[in-house]
Amino acid sequence: MNELSAPAAHDPAEQIGIVIVDDEQDFVHGLVRLVAGHFREARVEAAHSGKEALHLLARGPVQLMITDLRMPEMSGMQLLATALGLQPDLSVVVLSAYGTIETAVEALRTGAYDFLTKPIEPEQLFRVVAKGLERSRLLAENNRLRQIVLRQESQEELIGEGAAMRRLRQTVAAVAQSDYPVLIRGESGTGKELVARLIHRIGTRAARPFLAVNCPSIPENLLESELFGHVRGAFTGADRDHKGLFSVAHTGSIHLDEIGDISPAVQIKLLRCLQNGEIRPVGANSNQTVDVRIISSTNRDLEASLEHKTFREDLYYRLNVLTVLLPPLRERVEDIPLLARHFLRRTCAEMGLPAKELTPEVLQWMSACDWPGNVRELQNFIRRMAVFCTGERMDLALVDTVLGGARRLAARHNRSAGSTGAPMAYKEAKAEVVNAFTVEYVRDLLTKTKGNVSEAARISGLSRVAVQKILARLGEQAAVFRVKGQ
After folding, report:
1. E strands, 171-289, where?
2. Which residues have C-beta within 8 Å of that of residue 11, sequence separation ≥ 6?
3. How far is CA 61 from CA 58, 100, 139, 142, in A?
4. Which residues on adjacent β-strands are paired with residue 66?
């Protein structure tokens, strides 16, 4: 997308709305023609007063408003506050021929997105409008995601609105209505235990016991006893009878996580349970009848284990009556903002923290990252962010605090390079990282020097002209950083 073009991510059925407000009729109509000519998909309307602008806002959603400051009856500052009350997602650009730092600070504190002074350079105007429209789109999307998260959390559903998660919910709902064994397959961190619990909770055995056991976490010589129990004197230290998990879960469900890691001896015992509904405690002389639904899960390639004779073929087919495949996070990127919000709400509740908000920029960055640890890795990252966040908003500066700037850029680059399955050309990859570094470095430097270009040049070792050229290329103004630094 050309950086001066309007965002293409809006719903085509909903036309982009822009309102331009100024009491000078010739000026406002000229500005309308200029903006409408560049953003052809937008509906650009003129208002000659604050009252007229509010009437246009009341008719329906507007993404961007450009307003003059000095107008009769209602000033631009008054209009700004009232308009944001009507449409909180609105991006407002304040325009004035009498621009001062104090005025800009007041406008930004009141909620303006940006501040421009007359006369206006068209390229600068187009850039601000494009960024303002993108900001409004992101805010609206965030609000939509927030409502979805609240709805799904209240219904205790799997979080996600993409096609992969819709298919998963349909599969889980179907599988839950039977008592056949289920094999849940997916990479580490995709939520296999969550799905196992959900299958039990919405199934016919919901009122009965549910037990989960991580097979590799129990030493091999104890796993058989833990699952099937033992009698007194069965082995050294067995000073009393022990009821196994299958007996405890009788009439309910048991989740055997990482089933591919169990030993051949335990596989045989488990096969007997699946075939006959019977178990034999270690050291016992007779079998016990149990009624347990087995929900197993693995991240292993069981078919490869069959070829290597490390997993019994007959047990494989007994376990794999019904299969649930969990998609990795890279195949459901559209759900990352939803998941991030969900985990943030949960983390704040766990830590007793007030509600916090992820900025649109952070959500975009997260969606562009590679998450090899899948949902679990994303959840852990949100937890780290919450620990280090001292305010209400989690922005890219906080990401840099948690990860470091270079690692943040590398994470995003890994995603963009890997999305096509092939690495980028060396020059392209280098240019992308260098450009991203330049943007961050200059913005951080000017924020710290409060927009003082000469001081920024002195600290960076660049000439003043070089810093100004970088600013021009980035479309930034030193005055913006003076405002931010106030």
Report:
1. 182-185, 210-214, 253-257, 278-279, 288-289
2. none
3. 8, 31, 13, 16
4. 20, 93
Burial per residue of 216-249, b for 16 or more beta-carbon CB atoms within 10 angstroms, e otherwise: eebeeeebbbbbbbbbeebeeeeeeebebbbbeb
Q: What is the pTM of this model?
A: 0.58
- Residue/partner pairs of 299-302 with CB below 8 Å, 24 or more apart: 299/185, 299/186, 299/187, 299/188, 299/192, 299/258, 299/260, 300/258, 300/260, 300/261, 302/260
Q: Domains along the chain?
A: 16-137 (3.40.50.2300), 174-328 (3.40.50.300), 331-485 (1.10.8.60)
Q: Smallest Cα–Cα separation from 290: which of 279, 300, 303?
A: 279
| Radius of gyration of the chain measured on its C-alpha atoms | 30
Q: What is the dihedral of CA 223, 227, 233, 235, to 10 degrees?
A: -10
CA dihedral sign of residues 415, 420, 425, 427: negative
The tens digit of pLDDT for each residue in 356-397 reads 999 888 888 898 888 999 999 999 999 999 999 988 999 888
- Summary mean pLDDT of the chain: 83
DSSP 158: P
Given a contact cutoff of 8 angstroms between Cβ atoms, the answer to whether 358 and 336 are in contact is no
Question: Hey, what are 368's tokens?
Answer: 């562009």
Token output for 391: 């305010």
**How many residues make up the chain in this entry?**
486
Strand 322-325 to strand 182-185: parallel, antiparallel, or no bridges (unpaired)?
Answer: parallel
Return the structure tokens found at 69.
Answer: 């400051």
CA distance 45 to 64: 11
With the CA atoms of 187, 191, 192 and 193 taken in that order, what torsion angle do they form, in degrees rounded to the nearest 10? 140
Token pair of 180 as six digits: 């056949």
Q: Which letter does DSSP use for residue 355 in this model?
A: P
At 250, list the tokens: 């009788």
Kindly provide the b/e burial profile for residues 427-450, where b requires at least 16 CB atoms within 10 angstroms of the residue's own CB.
eeeeebeeeeeeebebbebbbebe
Which residue is listed with tokens 């006893």?
A: 225
Q: What is the pLDDT of residues 247-297, one digit of tens each?
A: 999 999 999 999 999 999 899 989 989 998 999 898 888 889 999 999 999
86: three-class secondary structure by DSSP: helix
C-alpha–C-alpha distance, residues 25 and 114, integer Å: 23
Paired tokens of 328: 């990795």
Distance of alpha carbon 183 from alpha carbon 27, whole angstroms? 68
CB within 8 Å of 187: residues ≥ 6 apart: 299, 326, 328, 374
* Contact call for residues 45 and 28 (beta carbons, < 8 A): no
